[in-house]
Design a protein that fits this description.
Layout: H1 3-13, H2 30-39, H3 49-75, H4 78-130, H5 134-158, H6 165-188, H7 191-219
Length: 225
């Protein structure tokens, strides 16, 4: 797939809502569903299948940990919340290490800082939504939006030919919208709606992971398998 087609495919993903248009209405057991989505065949490309599988696994680890955190906060289970928070941090480090394999330690450190900011925003939004603190939710959303812009710029600078900044930022904003919808639904106890959002988030995460894998495969054909 050439860059122009990739851009079009990514842009199309931006209009997929986190709503009843998701493929499944039924709730699925969390980790089994995440595993299915992470290992499902890539539809955008067959380039570097091992890299695609690895990237999907890493990025799905992020949304599994953040969902675990929201569910634990809703239940008032501080031990589970701490475990999920630790998992979110560990996942960010795993992603950073993967990036360092292509862009060096400085690249890994750079994305780790940005991913830490993303997780911090998601955590703050979760805590604020649980506390019925709308001002806190709005502040977290503002921080997440700014972080998305920084992350898109970082990725575009690293791989300008394959990761258009505006398109990457749009995909990240869609991801943030998924977090926000999911957190609201979990805190409201609306798990039927959350099941739909969860499926949409997984599909959207596949789109992001595949786009990143495609870009890496083009930029580093000797490393990507």
């Amino acid at each position: 797939m050439n860059t122009r087609i990739l851009v079009s495919a990514l842009a199309l993903a931006l209009v997929v809502p986190f709503s009843a248009t998701a493929a499944s209405q039924a709730a699925h057991q969390q980790h089994a569903t995440a595993q299915h989505a992470a290992t499902a065949p890539a539809t955008a490309t067959q380039t570097a299948p091992e890299l695609h599988k690895a990237m999907r696994g890493l990025w799905h680890g992020h949304i599994v940990a953040t969902r675990d955190y929201a569910l634990a906060i809703k239940k008032g289970n501080s031990a589970a919340a701490n475990k999920a928070a630790d998992a979110a941090v560990a996942n960010a480090k795993d992603i950073a290490n993967a990036v360092a394999g292509f862009y060096g330690q400085a690249g890994g450190d750079g994305i780790l800082k940005l991913l830490a900011g993303h997780w911090g925003g998601v955590k703050a939004m979760t805590d604020a939504q649980h506390a019925h603190d709308q001002a806190g939710v709005d502040k977290a959303m503002q921080a997440l939006t700014g972080n998305a812009a920084e992350l898109a710029k970082f990725l575009h600078t690293a791989n300008p030919d394959n990761w258009p900044q505006a398109t990457v930022e749009g995909l990240l904003l869609g991801h943030i919208a998924g977090h926000k919808a999911q957190i609201q639904q979990v805190m409201a106890g609306d798990m039927k709606a959350e099941a739909t959002t969860w499926r949409s988030m997984q599909d959207h995460m596949n789109t992001i992971a595949d786009a990143l894998a495609d870009g890496l495969a083009r930029q580093f054909p000797d490393k990507a398998k």
